[in-house]
């Protein structure tokens, strides 16, 4: 996951490939609650691991459910042992439910019926998301729920219910603000249906109906057959009891699929246009984990995407999408049945041949943010003309390529704003795009951007590279790592490649000189090298992170790096680090030889005396004895060799910015490099 302040997406050209998507949020949180209410253990396969499911899991643990393993591990099922419809007397807890509607609302209903003392809390936005209609419905039964702040909104205090006044009258609930209120009652009321039918009546319109379908499907799997009278009246038959299915599989999230369906519709044809030679090769996006047989209503996003021009093939649990009509066709659509995925249509509208209107989406205003306002504001930043109403949005795309603007997209802590706007990086003007606070995708899809990049292509010149070159001990490695971390970019420590080559060659018993140049170069071509987190480096199965950092390894690196054939052998490997979303490359010839077109080149240096002192302190702090004058002499010898070698000598690139760090702290240098980088961006500071 990208945890940076912002994530800059360079202009993206095309996309194709295969993605496996994480589990459905709506299914995951329903299954977790139903498993918790059942007796015995339910093994859940492919549960979503995200903020919304983590708050649900944490709450269930607080309520006494056993969860094994303790957290969700990719590829491993999770086992939930339920409480069998009863909490130990006097249970009390404060539950933090983040911004997860699918946790706050269903848990409120279940706990209000089970009894105990609970405080239901969340993030500030949760306190602006209505829950009054659900509380009103539960109070009809004798549930005790108090508002701790604003009437009609969390946080809530739940006390022990008094069912003495409860008759068999239908329980009434409004469904026009959120379908989650009805879902919550449907999942919790089997608790009261032991010896009588429980009937729920929807008052007025019911929005987001397909989510009720998910609820009913999952209740069936947990042994509860609800009678559905035309979506207006629901009867939970007397004798209903939660029965764990034993094992259950969570299908991939259909709302998350919408971004990749849109990607197929927008971007799979683009490379062919640019490169007529490739025109014969059909490109597509294949999506695994969700398909034709999905129980999620958002699967009907496919129909909307097809209406805009997407070509979609599907199977039971896969989709394959490619570009059909281009530009996309503008649509006018009632989106009440696909409230979440419809946001993706808003960004697809930027690529359409006319005005797109998305209607009947009033609920957007009370979700993670006011989504109608947010979409309008951000689409306008990109150059669209947008009209918004209480329950609709109308989008006119930028009239011509020149009308697109480079924008910094504010994401309002709304995962869907971040995800759908990433698709604007395919703009025909080839402008980069900034997504602020990219980690907000953690609500439902923590690795969204990594997944996106895995199927996107961009011309090399569009993938930004920041080069940080300089002499030994100038601090370039530390600075490059910090800059890469701040921007979420990849890191190339090119010096490490020479150190690894030197290590491998000397271990093979080779003298590091011209006589062995070709042999060492051949070794360099085939190095089984891997870079891991925390600047760890592996050669085959061996962690050589420390072995390549000795003074001797540095000297060996300097020797092999003077051999032209070795340098040539390492060029392709270095170039292969230029990947989305960008690269920070540190070394001695990054700006002069390897990435001559890099948009920012920094030549970082410090006086030899100062560098020798820094190295001395570094060694001493590691408990390694050192002598400052020997270090100074070694360092000057290394400078001389690096600067005088015939191939790619160390020197500042002509278009580099030079930075003397002798009197600067690491933080100051990092800030300076990031400031220079910001100054080159079209959207200014975030
Ligand atoms: O029940 C569910 O799982 C959901 C219902 C929908 O909410 P509304 O019913 O409030 O529209 C949807 O937007 C939300 O992401 C998930
Ligand atoms: C509205 C959403 O979430 P929640 O489940 O919190 O309502 C959403 O995921 O788009």
Question: Secondary structure elements and their pairing?
Answer:
Elements: E1 6-9, E2 14-15, E3 17-20, H1 25-37, E4 41-45, H2 51-62, E5 66-68, E6 78-81, E7 92-96, H3 101-114, E8 117-121, H4 132-141, E9 144-147, E10 156-159, E11 171-175, H5 180-188, E12 198-206, H6 210-221, E13 227-229, E14 233-236, E15 247-249, H7 254-267, H8 270-274, E16 285-288, H9 301-308, E17 311-315, E18 318-322, E19 332-334, H10 342-348, E20 356-359, H11 371-381, E21 385-388, E22 392-396, E23 408-409, H12 415-421, E24 433-436, H13 448-454, E25 456-457, E26 465-469, H14 476-487, E27 490-493, H15 494-507, H16 517-525, E28 529-531, E29 537-539, E30 542-543, H17 551-561, H18 564-569, H19 571-575, E31 583-587, H20 590-594, E32 600-605, H21 608-621, H22 628-644, E33 657-660, H23 666-679
Helix pairs in contact: 1-2, 1-3, 1-6, 3-5, 4-5, 5-6, 7-9, 7-10, 10-12, 14-23, 15-17, 21-22
What can you see in these coordinates?
This protein is an alpha/beta fold and 686 residues long. The protein has 4 domains: 6-21 and 252-459, Enolpyruvate transferase domain (UDP-n-acetylglucosamine1-carboxyvinyl-transferase, Chain); 25-249, Alpha-beta prism (UDP-n-acetylglucosamine1-carboxyvinyl-transferase, Chain), CATH 3.65.10.10; 463-489 and 581-686, P-loop containing nucleotide triphosphate hydrolases (Rossmann fold), CATH 3.40.50.300; 494-578, P-loop containing nucleotide triphosphate hydrolases (Rossmann fold, 3-Layer(aba) Sandwich). 34% of the residues lie in helices and 20% in strands. It is built from 23 helices and 33 strands. A hairpin with a 2-residue loop joins strand 29 and strand 30 (542-543). The mean pLDDT is 95. The structure holds shikimate-3-phosphate and phosphoenolpyruvate. Shikimate-3-phosphate binds next to helix 3 and helix 5. Residues 16-452 form the Enolpyruvate transferase domain. Belongs to the EPSP synthase family. Its main location: cytoplasm. This is Multifunctional fusion protein.
């Amino acid at each position: 996951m990208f945890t940076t302040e912002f994530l800059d997406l360079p202009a993206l050209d095309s996309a194709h490939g295969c993605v496996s998507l994480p589990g459905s949020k709506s299914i995951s949180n329903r299954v977790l609650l139903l498993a918790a209410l059942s007796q015995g253990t339910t093994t859940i396969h492919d549960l979503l691991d995200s903020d919304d499911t983590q708050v649900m899991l944490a709450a269930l643990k607080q309520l006494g459910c056993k969860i094994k393993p303790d957290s969700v591990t990719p590829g491993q099922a999770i086992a939930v042992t339920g409480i069998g419809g009863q909490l130990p007397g006097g249970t009390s807890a404060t539950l933090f439910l983040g911004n997860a509607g699918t946790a706050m609302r269903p848990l409120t209903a279940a706990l209000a019926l089970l009894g105990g003392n609970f405080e239901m809390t969340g993030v500030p936005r949760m306190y602006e998301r209505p829950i009054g209609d659900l509380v009103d419905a539960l109070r009809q039964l004798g549930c005790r729920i108090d508002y701790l702040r604003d009437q009609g909104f969390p946080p809530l205090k739940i006390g022990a219910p008094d069912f003495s006044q409860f008759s068999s009258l239908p329980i009434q609930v409004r469904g026009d603000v959120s379908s989650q209120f009805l879902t919550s009652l449907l999942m919790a009321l089997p608790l009261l249906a032991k010896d009588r039918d429980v009937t729920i009546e929807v008052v007025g319109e019911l929005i987001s109906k397909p989510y009720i379908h998910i609820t009913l499907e999952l209740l069936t799997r947990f042994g509860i057959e609800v009678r559905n009278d035309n979506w207006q009246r629901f009867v939970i038959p007397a004798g209903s009891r939660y029965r764990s299915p034993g094992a259950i599989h969570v299908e991939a999230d259909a709302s998350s699929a919408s971004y990749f369906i849109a990607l197929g519709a927008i971007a799979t044809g683009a490379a062919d246009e640019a490169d007529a030679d490739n025109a014969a090769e059909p490109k597509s996006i294949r999506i695994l984990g969700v398909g034709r047989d999905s129980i999620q209503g958002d699967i009907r996003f496919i129909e909307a995407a097809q209406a805009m021009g997407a070509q979609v093939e599907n199977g039971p649990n896969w989709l394959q999408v490619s570009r059909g009509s281009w530009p996309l066709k503008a649509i006018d659509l009632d989106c009440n049945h696909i409230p979440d995925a419809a946001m993706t249509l808003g960004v697809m509208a930027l690529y359409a041949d006319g005005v797109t209107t998305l209607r009947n989406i009033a609920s957007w205003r009370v979700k993670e943010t006011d989504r109608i306002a947010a979409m309008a504001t951000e689409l306008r930043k990109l150059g669209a003309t947008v009209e918004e109403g209480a329950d609709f949005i109308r989008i006119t795309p930028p009239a011509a390529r020149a009308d697109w603007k480079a924008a910094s997209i504010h994401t309002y802590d709304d995962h869907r704003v971040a995800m759908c706007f990433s698709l604007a990086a395919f703009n025909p003007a080839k402008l980069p795009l900034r997504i602020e606070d990219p980690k907000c995708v953690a609500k439902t899809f923590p690795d969204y951007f990594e997944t996106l990049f895995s199927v996107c292509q961009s011309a090399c010149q569009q993938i930004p590279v920041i080069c940080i070159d300089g002499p030994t001990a100038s601090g370039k490695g530390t600075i490059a790592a910090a800059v890469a971390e701040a921007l979420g970019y990849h890191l190339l420590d090119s010096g490490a490649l020479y150190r690894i080559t030197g290590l491998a060659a000397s271990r093979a018993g080779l003298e590091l000189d011209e006589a062995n140049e070709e042999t060492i170069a051949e070794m360099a071509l085939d190095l089984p090298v891997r870079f891991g987190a925390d600047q760890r480096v592996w050669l085959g199965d061996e962690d050589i992170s420390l072995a390549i950092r000795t003074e001797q390894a540095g000297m060996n690196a300097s020797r092999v790096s003077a051999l032209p054939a070795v340098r040539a052998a390492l060029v392709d490997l270095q170039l292969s680090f230029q990947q989305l979303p960008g690269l920070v490359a540190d070394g001695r010839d990054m700006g002069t030889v390897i990435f001559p077109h890099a948009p920012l080149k920094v030549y970082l240096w410090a006086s030899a005396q100062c560098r020798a002192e820094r190295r001395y302190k570094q060694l001493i702090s590691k408990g390694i004895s050192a002598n400052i004058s020997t270090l100074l002499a070694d360092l000057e010898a290394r400078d001389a060799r690096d600067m005088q070698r015939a191939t790619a000598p160390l020197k500042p690139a002509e278009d580099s910015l030079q930075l003397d760090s002798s009197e600067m702290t690491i933080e100051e240098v990092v800030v300076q490099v990031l400031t220079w980088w910001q100054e080159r961006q079209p959207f200014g500071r975030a």
